[in-house]
């Protein structure tokens, strides 16, 4: 039987090392299956997050052969099996243990975003073409892979100054909701740090949901903020049009 | 004894899926101090995986719909074993609950007139399922999450509750551990709402996640509450069968709702034989048995399933209406469902049985203990209709929030105490696996349990098989007394499994004992040795499981009696 050699990072905030495990291959097997095999047969205490095993919940993020991915989505037979497969925790967030990282920062930031705010006397008629924009962003499964690859968070650790791509689409989702009346441009320009993004598109490339984070959310948000900054009337007008 | 942290709230909600979140939002809105506890990160509960839609008689597409038809369909889907009052409340309140989600920001797919669109589903007379492509659960949980985090509740993520605590007869708290550190934590509360979901991890082939170990069912059972109808485990007709790694993953019923056709290896549309009127949109129990029978009789697809084909609807339509199915098959099975058929076979999906609750308030038979969502029993009778779970979560989640708050308001702050001896016992139990150098590997026993449940208490059951199953469970229970684990208590899945395994064993035993007792076939419970309905005897009772002196007791209790006006709706072939 052919086997995959899995080199899995094992450790905690104090440090750690790669451990190598041999896992028998089965047709269609994904990286998460291999991790489960390791738990059941070698190291029962290997820490891994997962829920759906169907790329729907965004729990199982890790860096496989250096690529930020959902481990339940990567089939082993798409990887070069003549060499060991490395599995590391996502780097941008502090490690708790093995492949589990502390992503609580995302939840804290999320709370700062002004939620959906409809007018008190809203007529709830909405047409498909009006909701599609926001629907794209609402596909997000919060895997935080975009947060993981964004160089502003990953290399420059500007978590205090930039909310990151996931939160940009969250804000865009509310902003582009046809019946929202709140105004998030001040926050976008200020504490959310929209200006930090220099449109490298790494976030879009890695998104397992195929959300066009940069083209459909960040760039339009930047345009809105710039428009208002130079021409407050146009912002008011755009809000007016939305309603 | 080691130190543990303590938190105090009026209400502790265990579970942050649709039911738990909706309950917590309601209780917070009523001014209660609420703690919301969940095993995973917020937003990852099972509800996130729901695909096809949420059932509510909005009558946006089929204007003839109304609560009475929804009630009628639900009762017939449940083969009249449902708690009629729950089914009535559910049908009446679901539309309002769904519209409320829209007011909180959910963006459902639209009709041409700009209303919430609705699709057909098995057993529903009209197009009734509000949906967002095939990711309805994601939309629902995000909307509730957004609402919840601004409602003033405290969220305790990645925290597992292992024991409920009582002061005399009344609930007084919950005890558990942080997954991250392995340290213990006590929650003092006047009322507790269980919203822990289901039990599917007792079976090998399942659409359910690691969380579905029947914790809530076991917590309630251990606290002295009744469980009802545990024999009714829904095997969803269409799980993936190939490749092995994805076996059991759900293929949403929306595929059939959108016109998917089932055929066998001879190319025959076999549902003609089993339910010529409703065909693929028959109820899940019937479709699951039909597929199973086709395979059993040698007419299965190459990997032992049936073919499910949607390609005739055209590539664009399929990708628009069933995007995640398209990707799921493309990526996991290398099948393009816009061009080729899928292969499907039944997978363990949902448990109709659960904590016996009062329809109005969701209180269980233990004062202060409430239950809503999949963990509660009664609403769906012997078989759940698709889409009726998400609506159930909203309707009874909200009612649980209300019921628990009203109960908690009547309790004096200082009148409840926590029994230290109970906590000491809980800690001892949890730390036992660290003291068994020669114990068994919990993963091994879990696998054996899953094999046994599939083999002995699966889709088709007999007295002989179930009895063998119960013997096997006894052996596994024995083996699970001494479990061994390695590593520290920090985020240690092996250690977590030790307690989960105990819950799974209890729930499995409850399922097996109820299945053995009910000598008839009804809904999801198919006894080969008793193939027909026995309306005179079994059609009149619920199965009841309770804890009696440490042992599992099984009995029956008469179904609540339906008022005449509802009977006429049920009998009337209502349209
Ligand atoms: C793939 C799939 C698709 C589905 N599609 C549909 C559909 O289209 N329509 C429909 O109506 N239904 C559908 N269902 C069924 C429906 O999704 C579930 O029944 C429903 O989401 C259950 O919700 P819940 O709130 O009861 O529990 P869940 O959403 O499962 O939440 C349970 C919560 O309890 C927590 N928990 C459990 N045990 C503990 C513990 N010991 N301590 C602390 N926390 C604990 C978990 O962490 C979690 O937060 C589907 C199910 C699956 C699996
Ligand atoms: S496009 Fe912007 S948000 Fe996305 S990775 Fe690049 S800098 Fe970060
Ligand atoms: S936007 Fe995409 S990559 Fe980012 S968290 Fe959401 S699903 Fe993941
Ligand atoms: S386990 Fe849910 S996305 Fe991988």
The coarse silhouette of chain B is globular
Using only CA atoms, what is the Rg of chain B?
A: 23 Å
Strand arrangement within the widest β-sheet of chain A reads 2-1-5-3-4
State the CATH topology of the largest domain in chain A: Fumarate Reductase Iron-sulfur Protein, Chain B, domain 2
Helix-strand blueprint:
The complex is a heterodimer of chains A (243) and B (575).
Chain A: E1 3-12, E2 15-24, H1 31-41, E3 61-64, E4 67-70, E5 85-88, E6 95-97, E7 100-101, H2 104-112, H3 128-137, H4 145-149, H5 151-154, H6 165-175, H7 185-189, H8 202-206, H9 213-230, H10 232-242
Chain B: E1 5-14, H1 18-29, E2 34-37, E3 54-55, H2 67-77, H3 84-103, E4 118-119, E5 129-130, H4 136-149, E6 154-156, E7 159-167, E8 170-178, E9 184-194, H5 215-222, E10 227-228, E11 233-240, H6 254-257, E12 261-263, H7 271-274, H8 284-296, E13 306-309, H9 315-321, H10 323-333, E14 342-351, E15 354-355, E16 369-371, H11 388-409, H12 420-431, H13 442-456, E17 460-461, H14 463-479, H15 493-517, E18 526-527, E19 541-548, E20 551-558, H16 564-571
Parallel strand pairs in B: 1-2, 1-9, 2-6, 9-16, 17-18
Antiparallel strand pairs in B: 3-5, 4-5, 7-8, 8-9, 10-15, 10-19, 11-14, 12-13, 13-14, 19-20
The structure holds flavin-adenine dinucleotide (FAD), iron/sulfur cluster (2 copies) and FE2/S2 (inorganic) cluster (FES).
Task: Give your account of this protein's structure.
With 243 residues, chain A is an alpha+beta fold. Chain A has helices at residues 31-41, 104-112, 128-137, 145-149, 151-154, 165-175, 185-189, 202-206, 213-230, 232-242; strands at residues 3-12, 15-24, 61-64, 67-70, 85-88, 95-97, 100-101. Chain A has 2 domains: 3-101, Roll (Ubiquitin-like (UB roll)), CATH 3.10.20.30; 104-242, Fumarate Reductase Iron-sulfur Protein, Chain B, domain 2 (Orthogonal Bundle), CATH 1.10.1060. Chain A contains 10 helices and 7 strands. In chain A, helix 6 packs across helix 9 (213-230) and helix 9 (213-230) crosses helix 10 (232-242). Chain B is α/β, with parallel strands linked by helices. Chain B has 3 domains: 5-232 and 352-408, 3-Layer(bba) Sandwich (FAD/NAD(P)-binding domain), CATH 3.50.50; 236-347, Succinate dehydrogenase/fumarate reductase flavoprotein, catalytic domain (Flavocytochrome C3, Chain A, domain 1, Alpha-Beta Complex); 420-548, Fumarate reductase/succinate dehydrogenase flavoprotein-like, C-terminal domain (Methane Monooxygenase Hydroxylase, Chain G, domain 1), CATH 1.20.58.100. Helices cover 35% and strands 18% of the residues of chain B. The longest helix of chain B has 25 residues, at 493-517. The N and C termini of chain B lie far apart (63 Å). The mean pLDDT of chain B is 96. Chains A and B meet through helix 1, helix 2 and helix 3 of A and helix 3, helix 4, helix 10, helix 13 and helix 15 of B. The structure holds flavin-adenine dinucleotide, iron/sulfur cluster (2 copies) and FE2/S2 (inorganic) cluster. The site of FE2/S2 (inorganic) cluster has 12 residues of chain A, from loops. Flavin-adenine dinucleotide (FAD) is lined by residues 14-20, 37-40, 45-47, 49-54, 136-137, 160-161, 176, 195-197, 207-208, 211, 215-216, 250, 350, 373-375, 386-390, 393 of chain B.
